[in-house]
Automatic annotation (TrEMBL):
This is Galactose oxidase. Keywords: Kelch repeat, Membrane, Repeat, Signal, Transmembrane, Transmembrane helix. Residues 369-389 have a biased composition (Low complexity). Residues 369-393 are annotated as: Disordered. Gene3D superfamilies: Kelch-type beta propeller. The keyword Membrane applies.
Length: 444
């Protein structure tokens, strides 16, 4: 009698651990054209194209409060944070108080019907409650668009410039926009700015970063040089667009310095000392099979100089990741963290996380969180409403535990039934004085 119960206990414990693993140590599908934001020491990943029949709605994260190696990642699923729609090539903007992620545009499809669904251009994820919503937006009507990036200014206004509008979703052809739309996140209203001077050429697939002085820096992408042009062309990466969010004016700067290939499907991060690091991307081609890699893979733009200057940090080519595109990049302390995308040489989806240290200018394989500093004083020590409470973790854990307990109990009950059944058969067998043969229930 003791042996079977030891066995059940063993099986029960193994199953419990396995289930905890399944829920808390999540193995995310590889993806491209996804989104990522950092809140509360968590690198949150969601949306994107997985190139499999299954659409992906999961929200999951990498815990940045603990050290990790880039070949041994522990992803955690936030089951209740599942997206309300499927989208890729959309923009995300994080609210200034780190509470809300705005998910804007992209190729949006209905979660149930899998048909294109542009009924809401904007969805909002509230981090403290782990809930997605479609905020009701007033003001101007902004047509759907893809391949955009957004930034937010100190008045909590989001800026969305231009973008691609796929008019033929089968052949993926369409038009480009050059309008500037602002989403006031206080009043929840869209405004299409009416600007008459220095209007940029229609453009999409750029990167956008807002400098502390309120100037947005737009780099790269594709443009439609004239309305008669048959196809799009790469934006010269040296010809940088600037948008002044104070005076609502466009201006341009010709960057100098190292020769950097123009590109699309790349990323940019802005460092606190005014450098924009761009990474990865590809050339432009009519079909994505003809996309080619760009050089250098990593470059930085010094925005402190009057005429912006490109350079290739020495040491940045050593241990460099392969040429990838359609990834995301986030800056967290000294690390630029690259997730997913496609390796352009092998055409395989990338599942690795690449870490670039912006201080040492080196690609590294180990992530070490900087210790909560007590020396940096007031500016970083100010209260952070999101940081103090961690409902995500708690609720996903409690959900996981609930799930595990529920399934565990079900499994245990089934085992007890099987045990009773086996025991009865065994006893019947013994009574019949047969040799001890383990029988599979139901086989006779
Ligand atoms: C992977 O990371 C986990 C914890 O994050 C650790 O327990 C484990 O030993 C690591 N495995 C390897 C092979 O480094
Ligand atoms: C938001 O998070 C960043 C770190 O990711 C932090 O520097 C900033 O102070 C936070 N803002 C607020 C209002 O908590
Ligand atoms: C392109 O624009 C039209 C007109 O605004 C809109 O109806 C359509 O949904 C857009 N297509 C995409 C893929 O965004
Ligand atoms: C899309 O491509 C197909 C096949 O090449 C072609 O028959 C069709 O006319 C194209 N659609 C448009 C709107 O051009
Ligand atoms: C940048 O260079 C182009 C081509 O040489 C020139 O036409 C343009 O006026 C320059 N722009 C600025 C802002 O200097
Ligand atoms: C290439 O483009 C097609 C159509 O736009 C899309 O279905 C496919 O997933 C893309 N492949 C990659 C690797 O992006």
């Amino acid at each position: 009698m003791f042996l079977p119960f030891e066995l059940f206990k063993f099986i029960f414990c193994t199953l419990t651990l396995l289930l905890i693993d399944l829920v808390l140590c999540y193995n995310p599908p590889k993806r491209i054209y996804h989104n990522s934001e950092i809140i509360d020491d968590k690198l949150l990943i969601f949306s994107g194209w997985t190139n499999i029949a299954d659409y992906t709605f999961e929200l999951f994260y990498l815990d940045l409060s603990k050290p990790f190696d880039n070949n041994n990642l522990t992803w955690t699923l936030i089951p209740e944070g599942s997206l309300p729609i499927h989208t890729y090539q959309s923009a995300t903007v994080l609210s200034l108080d780190n509470s809300t992620i705005y998910l804007i545009g992209g190729y949006m499809t209905n979660k149930i019907t899998h048909n294109y669904d542009y009924s809401n251009l904007v969805y909002a994820y509230n981090y403290p409650t782990s809930a997605w919503s479609a905020p009701e937006l007033g003001g101007d009507i902004v047509p759907p668009r893809q391949s955009i990036r957004g930034v937010i200014d100190n008045s909590r206004i989001i800026y969305i410039f231009g973008g691609f509008n796929a008019t033929d979703l089968v052949n993926n052809t369409g038009d480009l926009y050059n309008d500037m739309n602002t989403l006031n996140t206080v009043s929840n209203t869209w405004t299409t700015l009416s600007i008459s001077e220095n209007i940029p050429i229609r453009c999409s697939h750029y990167t956008a970063n807002i400098l502390p002085n309120g100037i947005i820096v737009y780099i790269g992408g594709i443009e439609k040089v004239s309305s008669f042009a048959a196809s799009f062309t790469l934006v010269n990466i040296n010809q940088i667009k600037l948008f002044d969010t104070e005076n609502l004016e466009w201006s341009y700067v010709n960057a100098t310095g190292n020769e950097i290939d123009s590109r699309i499907y790349f990323t940019s991060v802005l460092t606190p000392d005014g450098y924009i690091f761009i990474f990865g991307g590809s050339t432009y081609a009519a079909t994505n099979a003809s996309l080619a890699s760009v050089s250098p893979i990593l470059a930085m733009l010094d925005t402190n100089k009057n005429s912006f200057e490109w350079s290739i940090p020495s040491g940045s080519e050593e241990n460099s990741p392969p040429s990838i595109y359609g990834h995301t990049a986030n800056l967290y302390n000294d690390y630029m963290i690259i997730t997913f995308g496609i390796n352009i040489d092998t055409r395989l989806y990338s599942s690795e996380v690449y870490l670039y240290n912006i201080k040492s200018n080196k690609w590294v394989t180990t992530f070490t969180p900087s210790k909560p500093s007590t020396t940096t004083g007031s500016s970083t020590a100010t209260s952070n409403p999101v940081k103090t409470s961690s409902p995500e973790k708690k609720s996903s854990k409690s959900l996981a535990i609930g799930l595990v307990t529920g399934v565990g109990i079900a499994v245990l009950i089934s085992f007890i039934f099987i045990a009773i059944f086996v025991f009865r058969i065994k006893r019947a067998d013994q009574l019949r004085q047969r040799p001890d043969i383990l029988e599979i229930p139901g086989s006779d």
